[in-house]
Design goal:
alpha+beta, twelve-stranded mixed sheet, eleven-stranded mixed sheet, 26 helices, 39 strands, globular
Length: 997
C-alpha cells in the first residue's frame, strides 16, 4: 500500500510571461494573396461540372508542400476568417534575430502558381465540357500570374499580442507558444536521477498532427530496454528482453483565466508547459488504425528546393492509411512539379523504420530523417515472426519526479521569460471510511466488504444479516432508481461459456451467495441464439480500397441484419415479458468477435443489433464471445481468464448501474457533506448539459447532439432531449435517442423534406445555447446547480466565418464582468440579459462552468517550487484545490485519485524513476505512467445566499464529489456523474450511425 502524501498543495505547470524579455522576437504574417480568385475558380468549376458538388480548394496540399520545402515557417496558409463571404488564409513565421530565414513572397508565389497548375491538371481529368473547363482554368492562371504589388510579410510587435491576445484575430495564441519553442530549438538541458545523467537536445516540430498548426519540441530519440517476465513459463529463462524508442515532447499552450487582466483591461495570458512521451517505431508497421492517417516526422539535412532556407526542424507529414500507402494530398506529385527533391516511398519507411530514422542519434547522419510516430493500436512485427504483431514495448508517460525535473530545466533555459505560478492550497478531504456516503461508493467497495477477511469478526445470524444488508444496498438502489418497476435482463448467447460467465459475474454484481436468488424485481432470462448467421459480419464484395460500392453494400447489409435481429427479438424475447407497460427491458447480447483480420470495422454487427433493440424498447450491452482459457498449469481449477472475467463484469455493471443511472445511496447526503445547507440539499437537483460532436458524419456538417441530465436529491436520473418537451427517465431517454438515430440513418439516403430529421443531430451553436436557455428558464422544478463545459458551448464558427452562434458569456473575457447575469441576448425566444433576481431563475442556485484537457495545467504534488528536491506522488484520494489568483472570482480545481490499475507507478521506487532508469527489477520503460488531470470549476450567476466563500466552495464541491460512478471501480470519472451519464448516453447509440469508429 503506498504511503499517502499530505495533499496540502499542488504546483501547476503554468507560468506568467515577462513582457520585456523578448525584445528581439520576430513575428511575421503573410496573407494568401489570391483568396478571391480561388473562390471564383471553385465556383466556376462547379458550374461547368454541373454535378451539384461543392468544390474546395486543396489548401492542405499547398501547405504540406510549402512546409516540406521550407522548415523555417511556423505554418502555411491556414484559415483565418471570412471577409465578404471570401475565406482568408494566413501564413506565420516566428523567430529571433535576422529576418532572412523567411522565404520571400516571390519564392512563395512560384510555389502557389505551380500548385495552381497541378490543381488544374487534376480538374481537366474530370468529366465535363473540356473547352469550358479549359477556359475557366486559363482565366484562373491569368488572374494569379502576377504578384500583387503590396504583398509582403507583415511584422507584428510581440508586446501588442501579449497585451491583447485577441489582436490580429487571436494571433498570440499561436505565435507566442511557437516563439517559446523557437527559443529552445537546439538548446540542451541535463536531467539526472541518482548516478544517471541524460542530456536532452530540443528540436522544433511543425504541426501537432495532420491538421493542427503551430510548433512544439521533441528531444532526440532515446532507446530503452527492459526485461519482462512471462508468468506462463517457469524456470530461470522466463524473462524476455524488450526494447523501443521514445522522445520527450514539450508543448506550450497559451490560456487565460476569467478575471485575470492586464492593467490595460485585457486578459493576461498563462503559459502552460505540457510534457508527454512520444514513441517511435523501429520495427515494420503491419497494422495501423483504420480510418486514421499515419503521422511521420521528416527532417531535412539538405535543402529540398534550391535557395529555400531550412534548419533542423522536423516537419509533420501524413501517409494515407489505405491498401496502397501514399503521401497525403498527392504531395509527391506537387513536389515533382516544384522540381524539388523527392520524398522516400512511404511503404519503404513503414517496412524499415530503423533504416530511415536516426533513432540512435548518430552524429554523421546526413540523409533525410523519417520517424513513424506511434499511436495506440499500431502493431509491429519482424519478418518471420509469428502472430498478428505486437504493440509498442515502451509504455507511455513519465513519473511526476521526472516531469518536475524537466519542467525545472525548461524554466532555467527560459529564465527571465517565464515566471512560475505559486502552488494552490488544498480545500478539504473527501469523506472516507464510515463517513463515506453510499452515493459515493462503488461496486468494488461493496465486493470487498464480503471477502473473508472483512467478515471474520462476524458469525452466525449477524454475518448473514450483514451480507443481506449489503445485497439490499445494491438491489434497493436499482429498485429506487427504476421507480420499483420490474426489470427484465436477457442473456442472449450462442456459446455456452458466454452464458455461464455472464451468470457467474451477474451474481457477483448483486453479491449473491450460493443458493441466493436474484432480487424479486429483477428477472434474469437466458435466450439462446439458434441461428449462427445472426452473428456473422456484414458481408461485402470487397474492402473500401478495392470496392467503390462499399458504403452502399454496408448500408444494405446493415438493414438486413437489423431486420433479422428485430425478428429474432420479437419472436424470442418480447413474448417472455409480462406487463410490458410497467417494466424496463435490458439485454446482454453476444456478438461474436469484434476485430477480425481482413474485415473492416464497419462490418461489425454492433450497430444493427443495437438498432434492433431500441426499436423493440430494449436497452442493450454488447459482449464479445467468451472462451475458456487454455490451462498450462494442471492445478489451475479456474475456467476463465481474469481478463475475460473483468470485461464481462464491466459489461454487467454498465447495464445494471450506468444504463439505469443508479447510485448506491442518496445524493442529498453528498450535497450536505459538500457544504450545501440541509434545507437546499434535501431537494437539490444537479443538471448537466452534455454535448457530443463527431466530424465524420455528412459532408462538411458534423454530427452534434446535446442532452440535459438531471440528478435529483433522491437519486433518480432524468433527461431532457432537445426535440422533446418533458423530462424522461434515463433508461427511456436511451431508447428515444436510439430511435431518433434510427430515423436519421433512414433519412441519410432520402431527399429534401425527408432529410429534415437529420438537422436534429446537426445542432448549430445557436441551437445549443437556446437549449440551455430554455432548460434554465423553463424546466427547473427544484433548487438546482447547473453544470456546463466551456468547450464549444462558448463559441462556434459559422459557415461565413463569424462567431455569432454561441454563449459568449462562458468565455474568460466576458465571464468576470457578467458573473451576475445570464446573457442570452442573441438567443431566439429570449433576446435579453436575465438579472440574478429574475423570478424565472429563483430555483437556480448557480451555474458551474467546467474546463479540462489542455485548458487546465499539468502539476506536481508536494512541492512549492520546481527546483525543490522533495518526494512527489499521485493523489491517493479525490482532491480539491482553491486557486486564489483572482480573489474576487473563486476558481476550484478537482484532481482524481490515482486509479487502481496504476498500481505499478504507486511504489516508492517507481515514483522516483526516470524513463531510461531502473531500480532492481523495476523498469520505468515498462510502467505506463498516467496522472489524473485537473478540472477547473468556476461558479457564476450565484444566488445571493451562496455568494459567501464557504458557499461558493460548496457549490464547487458538489460536482467535485460527484466524480464517481458505482460502475467505474478503478478511480474517479473524468466528469461529474450526471455529465458522465449524458455523454455515455449519446455514445451508446453512435454505432447505429457508424460514428463510434
Amino acid at each position: 500500500m503506498p504511503a499517502k502524501i499530505n495533499p496540502s498543495f499542488a504546483l501547476p505547470a503554468r507560468m506568467d510571461l515577462a513582457i520585456d524579455s523578448l525584445s528581439d522576437a520576430n513575428i511575421a504574417v503573410l496573407m494568401f494573396p489570391f483568396a478571391k480568385e480561388v473562390k471564383e475558380f471553385c465556383q466556376n468549376l462547379e458550374k461547368v461540372f454541373r454535378n451539384k458538388q461543392t468544390i474546395y480548394a486543396p489548401y492542405r496540399q499547398l501547405n504540406n508542400a510549402i512546409l516540406a520545402c521550407s522548415s523555417t515557417l511556423t505554418h502555411g496558409f491556414e484559415y483565418l476568417e471570412t471577409v465578404n463571404y471570401i475565406p482568408q488564409y494566413r501564413a506565420l513565421a516566428v523567430g529571433t534575430g535576422a529576418e532572412s530565414s523567411i522565404p520571400t513572397p516571390e519564392k512563395i508565389h512560384e510555389l502557389i502558381y505551380i500548385w495552381a497548375q497541378t490543381w488544374i491538371k487534376q480538374s481537366l481529368e474530370k468529366k465535363g465540357q473540356r473547352d469550358e473547363i479549359q477556359s475557366v482554368c486559363d482565366r484562373f492562371l491569368e488572374a494569379i500570374d502576377k504578384i500583387p504589388e503590396d504583398w509582403q510579410w507583415e511584422f507584428i510587435a510581440l508586446k501588442t499580442l501579449i497585451k491583447d491576445l485577441n489582436a490580429q484575430n487571436g494571433l498570440g495564441y499561436q505565435a507566442i507558444p511557437s516563439l517559446l519553442v523557437t527559443l529552445l530549438h537546439e538548446q540542451t538541458c541535463t536531467i539526472s536521477s541518482g548516478d544517471m545523467e541524460q542530456t536532452l537536445k530540443w528540436r522544433k516540430v511543425q504541426g501537432g498532427s495532420s491538421t493542427r498548426t503551430g510548433l512544439h519540441l521533441v528531444s532526440q530519440p532515446f532507446k530503452a530496454t527492459y526485461f519482462e517476465e512471462d508468468y506462463r513459463k517457469s524456470g530461470e529463462k522466463n524473462a524476455k528482453e524488450k526494447e523501443g524508442y521514445f522522445a520527450y515532447r514539450l508543448d506550450f499552450y497559451l490560456h487565460t483565466q476569467a478575471g485575470r487582466f492586464h492593467t490595460e483591461g485585457h486578459l493576461k495570458p498563462w503559459v502552460f508547459i505540457h510534457l508527454s512521451c512520444q514513441r517511435y517505431a523501429h520495427e515494420p508497421l503491419v497494422d495501423a488504425n483504420h480510418g486514421r492517417d499515419i503521422s511521420i516526422l521528416m527532417g531535412m539535412n539538405q535543402a529540398r528546393l534550391d535557395k529555400y532556407p531550412i534548419d533542423s526542424t522536423l516537419v509533420r507529414l501524413t501517409i494515407e492509411n489505405q491498401a496502397h500507402k501514399n503521401w497525403q494530398e498527392q504531395l509527391p506529385d506537387l513536389l515533382t512539379e516544384f522540381k524539388a527533391r523527392a520524398l522516400v516511398n512511404p511503404q519503404e519507411i513503414l517496412n524499415n523504420p530503423r533504416g530511415f530514422g536516426n533513432l540512435d542519434d548518430f552524429d554523421d547522419w546526413n540523409q533525410d530523417e523519417y520517424y513513424i510516430v506511434h499511436a495506440e493500436g499500431y502493431e509491429y512485427k519482424q519478418e518471420g515472426q509469428n502472430g498478428r504483431g505486437h504493440g509498442h514495448s515502451i509504455k507511455t508517460g513519465f513519473s511526476l519526479t521526472e516531469s518536475a525535473d524537466i519542467t525545472n530545466q525548461i524554466l532555467q533555459l527560459l529564465n527571465g521569460v517565464l515566471i512560475p505560478d505559486r502552488p494552490m492550497a488544498f480545500d478539504r478531504p473527501v469523506p472516507a471510511g464510515k463517513k463515506l456516503p453510499l452515493a459515493m461508493s462503488d461496486y468494488e467497495l461493496h465486493r470487498k466488504s464480503l471477502i473473508s477477511s472483512a467478515l471474520k469478526k462476524l458469525t452466525g445470524e449477524a454475518k448473514q444479516q450483514y451480507i443481506k444488508d449489503q445485497q439490499n444496498v445494491i438491489a434497493g438502489a436499482i429498485k429506487r432508481t427504476m421507480n420499483s418497476k420490474q426489470i427484465y435482463l436477457f442473456i442472449v448467447y450462442y456459446e455456452e461459456h458466454t452464458k455461464t460467465l455472464v451468470r457467474q459475474q451477474l451474481r457477483q454484481a448483486f453479491l449473491l451467495q450460493d443458493g441466493d436468488e436474484f432480487p424479486a424485481h429483477i428477472n434474469v432470462i437466458d435466450v439462446f441464439i439458434h441461428d449462427s448467421s445472426l452473428l456473422e459480419k456484414l458481408p461485402v464484395s470487397g474492402l473500401p480500397s478495392v470496392n467503390a460500392n462499399f458504403d452502399e453494400e454496408i448500408n444494405k447489409q446493415h438493414q438486413l441484419k437489423r431486420q433479422a435481429w428485430q425478428k429474432f427479438i420479437k419472436q424470442n424475447l418480447v413474448p417472455l415479458v409480462k406487463e410490458q407497460n410497467n417494466c424496463e427491458l435490458f439485454a446482454i447480447i453476444e456478438i461474436g468477435t469484434s476485430k477480425v483480420k481482413g474485415r473492416h470495422p464497419q462490418q461489425s454487427i454492433r450497430g444493427a443489433v443495437r438498432e434492433a433493440c431500441v426499436l423493440e424498447n430494449i436497452n442493450s450491452q454488447m459482449l464479445q464471445t467468451v472462451k475458456a482459457k487454455d490451462k498450462e498449469n494442471p492445478e489451475d481449477d479456474t475456467m476463465y481468464s481474469k481478463v475475460n472475467e473483468g470485461r464481462v463484469l464491466n459489461a454487467i455493471l454498465d447495464v445494471t448501474l450506468r444504463q439505469t443511472g443508479t447510485l448506491y445511496g442518496l445524493p442529498s447526503e453528498v450535497y450536505q457533506l459538500a457544504g450545501i445547507p440541509e434545507n437546499f440539499a434535501q431537494k437539490l437537483d444537479v443538471i448537466a448539459f452534455c454535448r457530443l460532436q463527431k466530424n465524420n458524419f455528412i459532408g462538411k456538417t458534423p454530427f452534434q447532439y446535446a442532452v440535459a441530465v438531471r440528478l435529483s436529491a433522491g437519486g433518480t436520473v432524468d433527461v431532457l432531449l432537445p426535440h422533446q418537451p418533458q423530462w424522461v427517465p434515463y433508461s427511456k431517454a436511451g431508447i428515444a435517442i436510439g430511435q431518433l438515430f434510427h430515423q436519421v440513418r433512414k433519412a441519410r439516403n432520402a431527399i429534401e423534406n425527408d432529410r429534415k430529421i437529420i438537422e436534429l443531430v446537426q445542432m448549430k451553436g445557436g441551437q445549443l445555447v437556446k437549449f440551455v436557455a430554455d432548460v434554465l428558464s423553463q424546466h427547473l422544478e427544484n433548487p438546482t446547480i447547473a453544470l456546463i463545459e466551456a468547450d464549444v458551448w462558448r463559441n462556434e464558427r459559422t459557415k461565413d466565418g463569424t462567431n455569432n452562434q454561441a454563449w459568449f458569456q462562458l468565455k474568460n473575457e466576458y465571464l468576470f464582468e457578467q458573473k451576475y447575469i445570464l446573457n442570452f441576448e442573441r438567443v431566439p425566444g429570449h433576446n435579453c440579459q436575465y438579472p440574478r433576481d429574475d423570478k424565472n431563475f429563483e430555483n437556480l442556485l448557480g451555474v458551474v462552468r467546467i474546463r479540462s484537457n489542455h485548458e487546465t495545467p499539468q502539476y506536481v504534488t508536494n512541492r512549492k517550487s520546481w527546483d525543490e528536491d522533495s518526494t512527489t506522488s499521485d493523489f491517493t484520494e479525490l482532491s480539491g484545490f482553491i486557486d486564489k489568483t483572482v480573489p474576487e472570482f473563486l476558481h476550484y480545481f478537482s484532481v482524481g485519485k490515482i486509479p487502481s490499475t496504476q498500481k505499478n507507478q504507486k511504489t516508492p521506487q517507481a515514483r522516483e524513476l526516470y524513463k531510461s532508469d531502473r531500480d532492481g527489477g523495476i523498469y520505468a520503460a515498462n510502467i505506463p505512467y498516467k496522472h489524473q488531470q485537473m478540472l477547473e470549476m468556476l461558479p457564476f450567476f450565484v444566488r445571493r445566499e451562496f455568494k459567501t466563500e464557504d458557499n461558493l466552495k460548496a457549490l464547487c464541491r458538489v460536482p467535485h464529489f460527484l466524480r464517481i460512478s458505482p460502475a467505474f471501480t478503478r478511480g474517479n470519472i473524468s466528469h461529474p456523474y450526471p455529465m458522465h451519464l449524458g455523454i455515455k448516453l449519446i455514445e451508446d447509440f453512435l454505432c447505429i450511425l457508424y460514428l463510434e469508429l
